[in-house]
Description:
Layout: H1 7-36, H2 41-75, H3 86-120, H4 122-127, H5 129-156, H6 163-166
Amino acid sequence: MTNVIGQTAFNVAIGIMLAVAVSMAIARTWIRFLRFLRIHLDDYSLFLAVVTLIAGVGLLYANVSFLYQENKFIIGMGFEITSLPTHFVNNFAHNSNIQDAVVVMLTTSIFSVKFVFLFFFRQMADRIRPLLIWWWCVFGVLVVAAPVSVFVNFIGCPSTGVEILSESEPDGSF
């Protein structure tokens, strides 16, 4: 048997990290607004990061019991492939779509934070030409990498829901 963090501990840990992230983002935006009396481009990107993080964690919370059930199935702790509970198969399509949405939301959040740092350091890059060239190179890489990373799980497996089960290998593996 493998050591797996319990569902309650997982929920508490994710909730604490979400609270810390949101409160730090609010504090940072509030301090910058008081100092400059306006909202900058990196603040808008941070707002997008916070919104997508909250949405992704909310969807994760809604789906966490299924994730634990799916994990038990994958590592063979709960039941055999021949005796899948009917609610597992019925919920598979819905829950796999929620998992895809969680991945999209959290990846969007991560890349939004990357853009926050990039936009924040833009003023320093303006003063030094070689640094400005590197800034534009990093910006170009991020602009390409962000949409690819957000949609890579759809590129790798375009099927969703129960269709994934029918496309598995004959021995039941994926």
